[in-house]
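Review form for a predicted model. The reviewer records the input and the model, then writes brief findings.
Reviewer: anonymous (R2)
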Amino acid sequence: MKSLWSQEEAQQCQDELDLRVYSSRLLGRDKTLVLHGGGNTSVKIREKNILGEEQDILYVKGSGWDLEFIERPGFAPVRMAHLLALARLRELTDSQMVNELKTHMTVASAPTPSVEAILHAILPYKYVDHTHADAVVTITNTPNGLNSIRDIYGDKVVVLPYCMPGFDLARLCAEEFPKQVKDETIGMVLMNHGIFSFGDNAQESYERMIKLVDMAENYIKQQKAWTLLHTNQEIDPHKSRYKDIAQLRKDLSLKSGRPMLVHFNAGLKNLDFIHREDIGDISQEGPATPDHVIRTKRLPMLGLDLDSYIEDYQDYFNSHASSSKQAVTMLDPTPRVILDHELGVGTVGATAKDAAIVADIYDHTIDIILRATALGEYRALPAQDIFDVEYWELEQAKLKKSGGGPVFAGQVALVTGAASGIGLACVKALRARGAAVIGLDIDSKVEGVLQGPDYLGLTCDVSIQQHIVRALDKGVRRFGGVDMLVLNAGIFPRSRPISELSSEAWQEVMQINLNANLMIMRETYPLLKLAPQGGRVVMMASKNVPAPGPGAAAYSVSKAGITQLARVAALEWGADNIRINTLHPDAVFDTAIWTEEVLKSRAESYGMTVAEYKRKNILKTEVSSHDVAELAAEMCGPLFAKTTGAQLPVDGGNDRVI
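Model under review:
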């Protein structure tokens, strides 16, 4: 561990809360300390209220904020006097606790305070930091973990046995901390959970955390358990499994009752882990810390036997639900982590972000499991403790209040010609509705036009079948399947009469505008059949189909060809619950095909100026890529659920089309 503290950066902070924000971000920057909203920090500040009365306030991390990106509004101000009074109660339910925390904040708009707010309040230090450091969790998840922690730290830390987070943990700390604390104490270890550090100022508390975790890492190194050896397992690079992944995703979605995304990573680290002889034991112990169960469930699925996993989960629920403090409703029983010898580590989520978070957590979990195993044995908490967190009263409350997500949540769209123009606009429109999107384009800038876990841009020549197959394999490994296909890629050649149209120019247009779309449809058909809510295809044709113009023979014929292809596909694929509809845009000038040269040429062929040509429709309006994309996205949604084989103009009104 290395301290990231910069005196120069710290001097930019205006007050104690600014310093709290700064040091919290330093902790959040290190993924071996906290992951995706994990951990919490606080600072105690004396300030005057509106009546001029001084009061002690605990500024503690608010629910929903990530330490890496937290800002001042991310800290909830709670009156210390009330928190200390709550700590003296013998009992307090979680819902009562949350109500007391929220009703004793000094800023009504602040986020809900961390469930560890009372614990932070009773620790007699100005700054308090709490992380789930990998190294500490590794050691505490071993049979000899308690003795190891005492050997490493001595009186530098207070050690508490595992206890359910929230009020129970605060009560335990209130009783035990005063008994164990010494002058040299700078932190506290919660077995199988994490570690606290504290100090009189932000730098002291932060650097104590770094020091304590560094001591844990050094212990693991001294025990020769730090370095993880790899055996370089490999999978056959020529064996495509994307159809199997799509089938698995459909089964997962049907069992969970909603579309789900699946991301598979077959990196060497993951394959080495899965191919261990003891994988059946070490992977079935439980999560590294109970907090992870909300994201990962207690156990990963070994292999692809989904029915057996669900049966085991139901047994787990039935075995432990009776011990719960209140009646609980069983959660979705499908796995969030899948370990398969050929596919690698699969992570499942209702969104691409959810699946990516699970992937990050399990990547760290693998390191923790392997290092704990090297220390002697990886041993997680008993199943009942994990169940209690998974079915926490607060989590059950969230479940009951949660509404439906975006219309395309858990669904995957593939868009061709996605680097610019209508294609890029379609990517944005589909993402805005919750879809994860695979964007293909021959222009490599497609890989970086958008960022985020819900977008995968791939350089692909859609006129080459091998490129299409390779792109589908990558896309399905990333998201699990394809639900929606927007066929937009195409070229619009320079205007020329038939008498001057060469065979080479004709064939080039046909290959890209017509043949390529046939290949993509053929290759994606098995995936569209497996779409949990039915496959959808939107074909981007042209006004030139119903109303061709002079000088555009190849373009017009190619677009007429894909229109007819879409009509036939609608007839053939309807039985597979796949619907295919066609859009006929016209005069969409914010696209790559409308260069100044092409625009001028087309205007001249109509005897118009460029300005006149841009608004040569009945409504005298310009049609944008956004306009086309919005309709394309809606055609994939419930509004068009009963429509297939349709053709719609997006042209501002054309007298020849009408």
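Findings: The longest strand covers residues 40-48.
Further findings: The chain has a mean pLDDT of 94.
Recommendation: see findings above.
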